[in-house]
Amino acid sequence: MSNDHRYSKSERLAVYRAIAERRDMRHFRPDPVDPTVLKHLLAAAHQAPSVGLMQPWRFIHIKDHDLRQKLALLVDEERLHTAEALGKRSNQFMEMKVEGIRECGELFVAALSDKREQHIFGRRTMPEMDLASVACAIQNMWLAARAEGLGMGWVSLFDPVQLARLLNMPPGSKPVAIICLGHVDAFYPAPMLKLNGWADERPLCELVFQNTWNSTEL
Amino acid sequence: MSNDHRYSKSERLAVYRAIAERRDMRHFRPDPVDPTVLKHLLAAAHQAPSVGLMQPWRFIHIKDHDLRQKLALLVDEERLHTAEALGKRSNQFMEMKVEGIRECGELFVAALSDKREQHIFGRRTMPEMDLASVACAIQNMWLAARAEGLGMGWVSLFDPVQLARLLNMPPGSKPVAIICLGHVDAFYPAPMLKLNGWADERPLCELVFQNTWNSTEL
């Protein structure tokens, strides 16, 4: 069967390359990102799918130095709480670099908008689809950043209530990511948590079933 | 500042092209997808970022004809409930084609795994980051599908408890998407909900702030 909509081989390889080489980065160089490139990355995010076309994503560019420090302290605090919650693995966790907030060239917070309860299409039984839409937007931005040679990291080590307060966010909205973005010396050859021995990856074949849970497909 | 990690111009354009041309499709041709291409799409999904490297995504390939019909009926049912909940916009909603479950070449259910409570890294205050990871995986698959010339649609019009029962899913797991995938005659030139007059898109400049909520950046 012919498929006229298929991209050229080199285009397909470029898409697969970005998907394979994208990494959750924690190590950055401090130089800023070209503003034109930044706009392209945000435009890529903005082209994400959204449930009922509600476009629930909001992006706050953190340009103020003091505010950046406050965000970093908030994450330091949650890092300690997380270490405590991890029990036996606390030391191993504390030895890892888990974010690059102080040094990355550009810092963003991605958030869910307020007034989301007005959107019912695709959300009556699955209200959390708004978060899924924001995640798709962030993934678009991540892949575009990788193609631009820029590293990106998604930090979720924070108290969302306190972060919302720091950014004057209205009731009903919610921060979902602190996004570190910027130039990097090198991209990790594999996920950092794998390189650090935090977790092993499971092969795809264990996660794809046929017709019913835990049946084998691949 | 030089950037050695930047892709070639043609590669960058290919990534941006997939992001721009990806659509949430509801119209499909019934012919199946090449199994090798299917594996590439699932491998793309599997390369998504995941919080704490927990890889919470599971994919169930619906190959059984009767099971596909049951899924379609489940969605038909929720479509009526949603129409009712939409009040004044009920008729407009019912006139739209909102899924292609019966006709698409390949059908999947994407789900959150069970036993997620074991994963604390990045989730102590933000447990919903597991859904964000699954959404990133689906977005990877979507972009790869577009590059392969294949349409994909994310359907969230279902009762997750009933769908979990149909697929024998264990306690703690949760379906998050019925994924329609397959060949299409044409990709929509813009989001279908925009073409159908359901919703207007807001420009990016209204959704990007600087330092504090509702401040202007762009």
TrEMBL record, chains A, B:
The record's GO molecular-function terms, alphabetically, read: oxidoreductase activity
Source organism superkingdom: Bacteria
Which keywords has UniProt assigned to this entry?
Answer: Flavoprotein, FMN, Oxidoreductase
Does the UniProt entry include the keyword Repeat? no
Record-annotated Nitroreductase domain positions: 19-183
This one is known as Cob(II)yrinic acid a,c-diamide reductase
Q: What is the scientific name of the source organism?
A: Nitrosomonas marina
Native organism taxonomy: Bacteria, Pseudomonadati, Pseudomonadota, Betaproteobacteria, Nitrosomonadales
